[in-house]
Amino acid sequence: MSGWPILSLMTFLPAAGALLILAARWSSSGQHAGHDTGVKWIAFIVTLATLALNLVALSQFDAHQPGFQLVERVPWGAGLEYHMGVDQMSMALLLLTNFLMPLCILASWSIEKQVSAYMMLFLALQTLMQGVFAAMDIVLFYVFFEGGLIPMFILIGVWGGKNRVYAAFKFFLYTLIGSVLMLVALILMAIMAKTTSIPEITAFAQQGGFSKNLQIWLWLAFFSSFAVKMPMWPVHTWLPDAHVEAPTAGSVILAGVLLKMGGYGFLRFSLPMFPDASAYFTPLVFVMSVIAIIYASLVAFRQTDIKKLIAYSSVAHMGFVTMGIFAGTEQGVQGAIFQMLSHGVIASALFLVVGVIYDRMHTREIAAYGGLVHRMPVYAAIFLLFTMGNVGLPGTSGFIGEILTMTGTFPVNAWVTAGAATGVILSAVYALTLYRKVAFGKLENPALASIADLNAREWVIFVPLVVATLVLGFAPMIALDFTKASTQAILAGYDVFAAR
């Protein structure tokens, strides 16, 4: 390792912040309002500092250079090593993670229960999420990938809704069981390639190190983990329960970052390491993706809980990601990465939108609302923008991701593209119906008569999200040019047409 270890500093700064909060808790004579406020400020400042370090790392990064950069490599002994680095895709996802974290802390300002523990868990989760995207060693990747389950499990189980324990265990068991087979596959790959380095295993695989039959089994092992993480139909059922019961900031991280780990895994492992198996299973993934897009959209339309509706919407939108990835074309993969970034912003914003009215009314039932535009015009305008982004209105980031994944898939399978396009229409139906019921109509619920519009803290939360949605919508080449080199590297040696 040479130079300034910017990735390690960025990754582990939140963990250091968590230790600082722990020390402050021990030194405090007891829990009180002033202490809790101080803890919140510590967490917020640490997340801002982490974002600043991320921007420093970005300034040292060459977007046009293929391969991994800012590499840190330290042997641990016994053939293991600490190996970190980023390419364009992982840098983009790190920026998304660190962009959302300060907003999550601000959204958690109303938390009063065990504030120190809550903030420590969020900071620990930030370290683990960053580690997933920066790890270049399979052992390190697996530790970060699975380690993130623990803080989220506790956050849902302690600070969630009335069915929080059921939702927490369902989330934990689904994602853990799905990763057991991946662990077996990682061990086998390390033995065969005689290394745990992700770039070296990728090179070994692309030189024919894994036979086609072995690729199929390895691909299925990874698929068992990444499909649950996305989540893909039919292993998606943990997500609506987790979203409904999680605190608002927990839902933001689930939708904004944790779901993206599945797509990242497909792009980092499945496509470049198992090209023959990826081509072989592409029809299966296409079918599952189209079912997810259409089925989840239909189920979303029937929901009475706003958060559950948005959760099913996430399942549908992540179907575009898997479709674009396994299309195996540059436009498809570029669209999938863009869709992950766009969904991370828009879905997070929608969960924060729900959190605003939940904090005031303590209910997420659609029937409890109506006519909010009369009392909360600014809120209604922001809600409308993100609803339009969710349905893919041109000018928002949601349009770019969906149109690119469909454009990239069309040369491979026109019928799959047609099915996905049906999902675009269905998303407009459920999203606009929700908006009409919540924002328009008469103000019939007496409790809404005194509801207040956005406060200063909520303005600070939503303005960056509005800007990100519009900038990515009107100037998508900012992201597409940035991720182009990593997309081409992922697809090097993988020709979906020739593979078939």
What does this structure look like?
This protein is mainly alpha-helical. The chain is globular and about 70 Å long. Helix content is 75%, strand content 3%. The longest helix has 32 residues, at 330-361. It has a two-stranded antiparallel ribbon with strand order 1-2. The protein has helices at 6-27, 33-59, 88-107, 115-134, 138-147, 149-159, 164-193, 198-206, 212-229, 238-245, 248-258, 260-273, 275-301, 306-327, 330-361, 372-375, 377-390, 397-409, 414-439, 456-474, 477-491, 496-499; strands at 69-77, 80-86. A hairpin with a 2-residue loop joins strand 1 (69-77) and strand 2.
Strand residue content? under 5%
Outline: globular
Mean pLDDT: 88
DSSP helix fraction:
over 70%
Low-pLDDT ranges: 496-500
Major sheet summary line: 2 strands, antiparallel
Number of helical segments with 4 or more residues? 22
Radius of gyration: 22 Å
How many runs of DSSP E, i.e. beta strands?
2
Element-by-element helix/strand order: HHEEHHHHHHHHHHHHHHHHHHHH
Trace the largest sheet across and list its strands: 1-2
Based on helices, strands and strand pairing, what is the structural class? mainly alpha
| Cα end-to-end separation | 42 Å
